[in-house]
Amino acid sequence: MALIKTRLELKDLAEGGRILWRILNTVADAAKPGISTHELDLLARSEMKKAKVQPAFEGYQISPDIPKYPAVLCSSVDHEVVHGIPHKDKILKEGQIIGLDLGIVHRGLYTDAAVTVAVGQTSSENENLIDTTREALEAGIAMVKPGNRIGDVAHAIQSAAKAAGFSVIRDLIGHGVGHELHEKPDVPNYGRPGTLEILREGMVIAIEPMFTRGDWRIKFKEDGWTVVTADGSPSAHFEKTVAVTATGHEVLTK
Ligand code: MF3
Ligand code: CO
């Protein structure tokens, strides 16, 4: 069952969410042709240090046979869906699209957010993919209120992908967040209305649609982390941390 946060925890989560959103946008503004993804990671690190918050991703372990996550930022270029590891030799080029995902810990509480941006000018197809994924996240968030279900959120996201002719990456999902980076409940990006967990006041979830212009199937790179589309199509990812309030919701990463 999903955890219910106290009033005080929600206040600290909102404070952390605002800090995270500011840092994420600072990193996104720096994602220009010629910069390396490692430099973006360094920027995120220094901003976190200045704000006196801790990274949530560095040292994270998904399974015992894969090395701990070595950076504070996930930077996923073009057909990379999520969890791209920053590298010194990965230099951004005009026309690419990059997903930037950051998590922080503030007063012991986790928040998680992501955006996708174009590096310089990109194609209208990529612009459309980015816009649709951002709008799908907003459509999902609009369904967050007490009494609605996770399936209502998931269905709104899926419908936005379908209407635009994009595919939902089915094997990766959003999650509860707060005391840990990943908590109950699961928040899938496709599903039927009226199904899955009932939303209740005080729940906090990270909603994170990932869409692609091609087929939904994914594979992992040899580094054990980087998720790519199996057919090489570009993909976009947006994520916000959202609290369920008495009457609706409050976006914490804003
Ligand atoms: N935001 C990512 C997620 O919710 C977290 C990346 S995994 C990490 O899956 F190892 F980088 F932390
Ligand atoms: Co997440």
Which tags fit this structure?
single chain, 254 residues, alpha+beta, Creatine Amidinohydrolase, five-stranded antiparallel sheet, four-stranded antiparallel sheet, 28% helix, 25% strand, globular, binds 2-amino-4-trifluoromethylsulfanyl-butyric acid, binds cobalt (II) ion, aminopeptidase, Pept_M24, initiator methionyl aminopeptidase activity, hydrolase
Descriptive report:
The two termini are 27 Å apart. The strands form 4 sheets. Strands 8-7-9-14-15 form a 5-stranded antiparallel beta sheet. Strands 1, 2, 4 and 5 form a 4-stranded antiparallel beta sheet that branches. Strands 3-12-11 form a 3-stranded antiparallel beta sheet, with no helix packed on it. Helix content is 28%, strand content 25%. The chain has helices spanning 7-29, 37-51, 124-142, 150-164; strands at 54-55, 73-77, 80-82, 97-106, 109-118, 167-168, 174-176, 183-187, 204-207, 210-212, 218-220, 227-229, 235-237, 240-244, 249-251. It is globular, with a radius of gyration of 17 Å. A hairpin with a 6-residue loop joins β7 and β8 (183-187). The longest helix has 23 residues, at 7-29. α1 (7-29) packs antiparallel against α2 and α3 (124-142) runs antiparallel to α4 (150-164). The structure holds 2-amino-4-trifluoromethylsulfanyl-butyric acid and cobalt (II) ion (CO). 2-amino-4-trifluoromethylsulfanyl-butyric acid (MF3) is lined by residues 57, 60, 69, 74, 83, 101, 103, 112. Residues 57, 60, 69, 74, 83, 101, 103, 112 line the site of 2-amino-4-trifluoromethylsulfanyl-butyric acid. Monomer. Its cofactor is Co(2+); Zn(2+); Mn(2+); Fe(2+).
